[in-house]
Specification:
The structure holds 2 protein chains of 2 kinds. In chain A, 44% of the residues lie in helices and 21% in strands. Chain A has 16 helices and 12 strands. In chain A, the strands form 2 sheets. Chain A has a 6-stranded mixed β-sheet with strand order 1-2-6-3-5-4, sandwiched between helices. In chain A, strands 9-10-8-11-7-12 form a 6-stranded mixed β-sheet. In chain A, helix 9 (256-268) crosses helix 14 (375-384), helix 10 packs antiparallel against helix 11 (311-331) and helix 11 (311-331) packs across helix 15. By secondary structure, chain B is an alpha+beta fold. Chain B contains 15 helices and 11 strands. The longest helix of chain B is centred in the C-terminal third of the chain and has 18 residues, at 315-332. The relative contact order of chain B is 0.16. The chains are: A alpha+beta, B alpha+beta. At the A-B interface, helix 2, strand 5, helix 4, helix 10 and strand 9 of A face helix 2, strand 5, helix 4, helix 10 and helix 12 of B.
C-alpha cells in the first residue's frame, strides 16, 4: 500500500505527508502537536491531559454531544491521543465526508469553549480513572516505573497527573495551556487514502494558513544513569509484578538499529526471545515476560523488563533474569540469533503498511522524529547489514544489570529482603 | 452500502473446509478454527480446551517446543491463538510467499502434537489465571458475571478453567481431547490476502488430504432455562473501582433477531453519541466508560450493559438511568435520523475492517463458524432495511426487568 509519497510544506513551515491509495473509499489522517505532559507546570501535573480531554467537549458552535453525534452520524472514527511527548488528532472516515470533517475540525481546534461545567465533569472523570488505575497491578507498576526512572524530571509524573494536582487546575490554566502549549507548538500533518493529494493539501492549507508557532521550548535535564532506586509496592495480590530498567536511546541515535535487534533477541521477540524461552518455557515461572524500549523524543528513552510471577517463584525468577541479562552482556548474541532476528524484521516490514491508519502513523512518526519518511526502510537496511561483532559491542555497552531502577509490586506480607542481596547498591522504598 | 470482495469456499474429501479470500496484498493471513471451546468441557476438567491451545505450541513429532512460532517469526510473521466458549482459533500472518510453509506447519500440528513440557506449561497457565483473573478486578468481574448470568449452560464457566481443574488435567486428558476434536471435519481454514488461488488450493488439498477422515463428532445441545426473575450479585473487593454489568439472555449470532438486537444495543450504548453514553458520561459524568453489546455466540449469548462508575456515583442511580433510557425507546421509539446514524456506524466499521487481511479473515470466520457464511454479502443490506418498529419490538422480547442479571463490583 505504500506507494508514492506526496510532500508539502506550508508557508508557516507546517509539513504535510500523504499517500494516495484508491483501494477502498476511505481516508485516514492525523494532526500531530509537538507537545506533551512534560510541559505541565509544577503543582499542576495532569494539566496537559485534562486540557487535551476537553478539546472535544464543546466549542463555540457545538456541544460535547453534538460533536460526537456529528462523527457517529457519518460513521467516522475520531480520537485525540495523548502521551508524554505528543498529542495527535486522528480521523478515519469515508472519503465523501473528508471535506465536511475538515471544516468541522476548525471549530474543535480553534474555538474550544472549556466550559466550567465540562471542566468539573472532566476532573471528576480523571480523578476516578486515577483511582481505578491503582487497582490494576500491571498498570500501576508501569505508571510508577516512569516516576522512579525519571525522578525529578518533567517526564516523571504520570500523564494524567495526581488527584491533588488535578483538583488545583482552574479554567484559566487550561485556556492558557491550550493557547500556548498546544496550539502554539509545532504541528505536522499526515494522511493516507482515496483522495487526490491536491484536495487533501487544499483543505489543510485553509485550516492552518494562519497557524503560528509560538514556542519550541523543551525542558532540559541530564539523565544517563539511573538512581538505582527500587520502589516496592505492597498490595493484596498473590503474584509479584515487576518493571525495572534503565535509560535507553533516542530514536535518532545512530545505534538504534542495534537496540532493535538486541532487544528482539533478549526479550522483545516473544517466543523467539531468550527470556521467554528460559523463564516461561523451561521453568514455567511466568505467563508473560518481555523487554521493551520506549522513545520519548526529544528526550532520552527507557529500556525495561516486565514480568509477573507467583511469590514462591519470584526470587528464583528474578535471579535467573539477572543472570540472563549478564550472560547476554558478556557473551552477546549468537550468529543464529542475529540471522533469525534479521529474518523477522525483513518480513515484518510488509505488515507495517497494510492499512490506511498504519501508513498515517508511520508518516506522523517520521515527522515527529524529524527523520526522513523512508526511515523505516533505512533502518531495515541497517538491520540487514549488521555484523555480529558490531552488535555484540553494542550489547556490551548498552545492557546494564547493575543499575536497574523500577517498581516491584508484592503481596502484603511478602519478605523481599533477598532483593537487597541481589541489588546491594540499590535503595529500596516501600509504598 | 454494498459489500464486495472475492471469497471462495471448498471442501476437501476428509471434511476440512477451506475458504480463500484473495486480494492484492504482500502478506497473507491464515486462520484455522477448531469447533471446540470451553462449553464442551466437563466438571473437574474445565479449561482443557484452553490448555490444549497452549500445548499446540509445544512441538510435534517434527518440531521442538515453540519451534512453530520461531519458524513463523523467522519469516517475519506473527502467530497466536485464543480459545472461546465455542471455538479455538489459531492465526498466522506471513509474507505471501511463505504461506505454503504455514499450510505444512498447521497440517503437522493437526496430527502430531506430542505434549512436551506439559508440567511447565501447566504452571504457566496457573500464572496466566492469577494475572488475568485473580489479581485483576476486571477479570474477577467477568468471571463472576458469567457465573451469575447462566445457571446451567456451560457458558457460565471461565474459558481458562478454575485452578483446581487446571491442576487436575492430565497429559492423557489433553491427548484424548485433541484426538476427539482436532479433526479435519471439525475445523475450517480461512486464508485472506495475497495468494495464487489455484496453486494454493491444490497445495492445501495435497497436504491436508493426507490427514485421515474421522468419525463425525456427535452434536451436543446446551440448554439454559428461561429466566423469569431478577438476579443480583455484589462483589465486595473493597476497591475504589466500581463496575456495573447488567445482562439479559439474548439469541445466537445466526438468529434473525440478532441484527435487530445489535442495532438496539448500538442505539442504547454502542457509541459516544448513544443514549446511555450521553446520559451517563456526557451529561452527568456519572461514569467514565459505557458500552452495550450483544455477544456473538453459537448458542444464546448475552445482551450486556457494562459501565465503570466515577467516584461517588451510586449503582442505583446508574441502574435507574439505564431503565429510563430503555423505557424511553420502548415507549417513544426513535427518530429515523438516529437509526440512520447507527446504521452508518455499523456499515463504516465493516468497511474499515476490510482494509486488512486479518479483518477480512475474521469477518468471514465469524460467519462460517455460525453457519451463515452465505449471509456475508447481504448482511449490510439487511441492516439497512431494518425498520425502527422491528428493532423496538424485538428488544422488548429480551430486555425485561424480570430477565435481568446485575453484577456490582466495588
Amino acid at each position: 500500500m505504500l506507494k508514492r509519497i506526496y510532500k508539502a510544506e506550508l508557508e508557516n513551515k507546517i509539513k504535510i505527508l500523504y499517500v494516495k491509495n484508491k483501494e477502498l473509499p476511505i481516508i485516514s489522517f492525523a494532526i500531530g502537536f509537538d507537545t506533551g505532559s512534560y510541559l505541565d507546570p509544577k503543582g499542576k501535573e495532569g494539566l496537559f491531559y485534562l486540557t487535551s480531554n476537553l478539546i472535544d467537549k464543546g466549542n463555540s458552535l457545538h456541544s460535547s454531544y453534538k460533536i460526537r453525534d456529528f462523527f457517529d452520524g457519518i460513521g467516522a472514527k475520531f480520537n485525540i491521543v495523548t502521551s508524554k511527548n505528543l498529542l495527535i488528532v486522528k480521523l478515519l472516515c469515508r472519503v465523501e465526508y473528508f471535506s465536511k470533517i475538515a471544516d468541522f475540525l476548525e471549530h474543535i481546534l480553534y474555538y474550544p469553549s472549556f466550559d466550567e461545567r465540562e471542566i468539573e465533569k472532566e476532573k471528576r472523570t480523571v480523578i476516578s480513572e486515577i483511582l481505578q488505575e491503582e487497582e490494576e497491578p500491571d498498570y500501576l507498576v508501569s505508571k510508577k516505573f516512569y516516576e522512579v526512572l525519571y525522578k525529578d524530571t518533567p517526564l516523571s509524573h504520570p500523564i494524567d497527573g495526581y488527584i491533588h494536582t488535578i483538583k488545583e487546575i482552574e479554567k484559566k490554566d487550561i485556556e492558557n495551556f491550550y493557547k500556548e502549549k498546544i496550539l502554539g507548538r509545532k504541528i505536522f500533518i499526515a494522511g493516507s487514502g482515496y483522495l487526490d493529494f491536491d484536495e487533501f493539501l487544499n483543505k489543510f492549507e485553509k485550516l492552518f494558513r494562519n497557524y503560528k508557532i509560538l514556542s519550541n521550548f523543551y525542558p532540559e535535564f541530564r539523565k544517563e544513569r539511573t538512581d538505582r532506586r527500587i520502589l516496592v509496592i505492597k498490595k493484596k495480590v498473590n503474584q509479584v509484578f515487576v518493571r525495572v530498567g534503565h535509560f535507553s536511546l533516542k530514536r535518532k541515535d545512530k545505534n538504534f538499529h542495534y537496540l532493535i535487534l538486541s532487544n528482539y533477541i533478549l526479550g522483545g521477540g516473544a517466543f523467539a526471545s531468550r527470556l521467554f524461552k528460559k523463564i516461561r518455557n523451561e521453568l514455567g515461572f511466568v505467563y508473560s515476560i518481555y523487554s521493551k524500549f520506549n522513545t520519548i523524543e526529544p528526550f532520552v528513552g527507557s529500556y525495561s523488563y516486565l514480568f509477573q510471577t507467583s511469590e514462591e517463584n519470584f526470587e528464583k525468577a528474578f535471579k535467573k533474569i539477572i543472570h540472563e541479562i549478564k550472560k547476554f552482556k558478556v557473551k552477546g548474541a549468537t550468529m543464529k540469533e542475529l540471522k533469525d532476528a534479521k529474518g523477522f524484521y525483513k518480513g515484518s516490514i510488509l505488515r507495517e503498511f497494510e492499512t490506511y491508519s498504519q501508513i498515517t502513523n508511520l508518516l506522523i512518526s517520521s515527522l515527529q522524529y524529524g527523520l526522513r519518511y523512508s526511515y523505516v526502510f533505512e533502518t531495515l537496511k541497517k538491520i540487514l547489514s549488521t555484523k555480529i561483532e558490531d552488535l555484540n559491542t553494542f550489547i556490551k555497552n548498552f545492557y546494564d544489570y547493575e543499575n536497574l531502577s523500577g517498581v516491584i509490586l508484592v503481596p502484603d506480607r511478602y519478605d523481599f529482603s533477598f532483593l537487597k542481596e541481589i541489588l546491594p547498591q540499590h535503595s529500596f522504598e516501600v509504598l | 452500502m454494498k459489500l464486495k470482495f472475492k471469497v471462495k469456499k471448498f471442501i476437501i474429501d476428509n471434511g476440512l473446509k477451506v475458504i480463500l479470500i484473495p486480494f492484492d496484498r504482500k502478506i497473507t493471513s491464515f486462520y484455522l478454527v477448531y469447533k471446540v471451546g470451553s462449553k464442551y468441557e466437563y466438571d473437574g476438567k474445565r479449561g482443557i480446551s484452553h490448555f490444549l491451545e497452549h500445548m499446540m505450541f509445544k512441538g510435534t513429532k517434527r518440531l521442538k517446543p515453540e519451534e512453530f512460532s520461531r519458524i513463523i517469526q523467522r519469516m517475519g510473521g506473527i502467530d497466536n491463538a485464543f480459545t472461546t466458549e465455542d471455538f479455538t482459533f489459531y492465526y498466522v500472518t506471513v509474507p505471501k510467499d511463505e504461506i505454503y510453509k504455514v499450510v505444512k506447519l498447521e497440517a503437522d500440528r493437526m496430527e502430531y502434537v506430542t505434549f512436551k513440557e506439559f508440567e511447565s506449561e501447566k504452571k504457566v497457565i496457573i500464572e496466566e489465571r492469577k494475572e488475568s483473573v485473580e489479581n485483576s478486578p476486571y477479570g474477577k468481574f467477568w468471571e463472576n458475571f458469567s457465573l451469575l448470568s447462566y445457571t446451567v449452560h456451560p457458558y457460565r464457566y471461565p474459558v481458562i478453567g478454575f485452578e483446581s481443574d487446571i491442576l487436575n488435567i492430565t497429559k492423557n486428558d489433553l491427548r484424548n481431547w485433541y484426538n476427539k476434536f482436532y479433526t479435519p471435519s471439525n475445523a475450517f481454514i480461512v486464508i485472506s490476502g495475497g495468494m495464487e488461488e489455484k496453486v494454493l488450493l491444490k497445495f492445501i488439498e495435497k497436504i491436508f488430504s493426507k490427514i485421515e477422515k474421522k468419525d463425525k463428532i456427535e452434536k451436543r445441545e446446551f440448554y439454559e432455562p428461561e429466566q423469569n426473575f431478577e438476579r443480583k450479585m455484589i462483589l465486595k473487593l473493597n476497591s475504589s473501582l466500581k463496575i456495573l454489568g447488567i445482562s439479559f439472555h439474548s439469541v445466537p449470532f445466526s438468529h434473525p433477531d440478532f441484527i435487530k438486537l445489535s442495532l438496539f444495543s448500538a442505539l442504547l450504548g454502542g457509541f459516544e453519541s448513544s443514549r446511555l453514553y450521553r446520559a451517563l458520561v456526557l451529561e452527568k459524568s456519572l461514569c467514565n466508560e459505557v458500552s452495550t453489546f450483544c455477544e456473538e455466540k453459537i448458542d444464546k449469548g448475552l445482551f450486556i450493559f457494562y459501565t465503570i462508575l466515577n467516584k461517588d456515583t451510586e449503582f442505583d442511580e446508574v441502574i435507574e438511568i439505564f431503565w429510563r433510557e430503555v423505557d424511553s425507546i420502548f415507549q417513544n421509539y426513535i427518530e429515523e435520523m438516529e437509526l440512520q446514524k447507527v446504521k452508518n456506524m455499523i456499515s463504516s466499521e465493516f468497511l474499515y475492517k476490510m482494509q486488512s487481511t486479518s479483518g477480512r479473515g475474521r469477518i468471514v470466520s465469524l460467519f462460517e463458524l455460525n453457519g451463515i457464511f452465505d449471509k456475508i454479502f447481504t448482511y449490510l443490506d439487511e441492516i439497512e432495511n431494518i425498520k425502527i418498529e422491528e428493532i423496538v419490538e424485538t428488544a422488548k422480547k429480551y430486555i425485561k426487568r424480570e430477565r435481568s442479571n446485575y453484577l456490582m463490583l466495588c
